[in-house]
Amino acid sequence: MKTSTALSIILATTVFTVGCTQETQNKIGRSLQNWTGVNGTLEVFSNGQVVKRFIKIDKLTTAPATDSGGIRPYRFGYGILDENLNGKSDENERKVYFEISDYSTNYVFYGDPSNK
């Protein structure tokens, strides 16, 4: 049963992809711009100091605007809110959804340098 479901999904995806023009495939591929990394960290700064830190982020995403076809002026993702800013996932810290503005948020996103 699981094999037939998996094959059906693969077949449907293949038919959809083949049915699209190259331009449409490129547009779909560009519709979400992803900043990918493994175990990324995002730090938000105010007055030169870190005021928020999100750790263990897989990617930051910018979605396309609905009307203009451009991109929205914010990024979003999921990560663990490092409440005590110690750079570690503590027992009481949970994964959260977050958004950051391109206009007013001073931030740095980087991958974990110890992750090879």
UniProtKB/TrEMBL annotation:
PROSITE patterns: PROKAR_LIPOPROTEIN
Protein name as it appears in the record: Lipoprotein
Species for this entry: Thiospirillum jenense
Taxon lineage: Bacteria, Pseudomonadati, Pseudomonadota, Gammaproteobacteria, Chromatiales
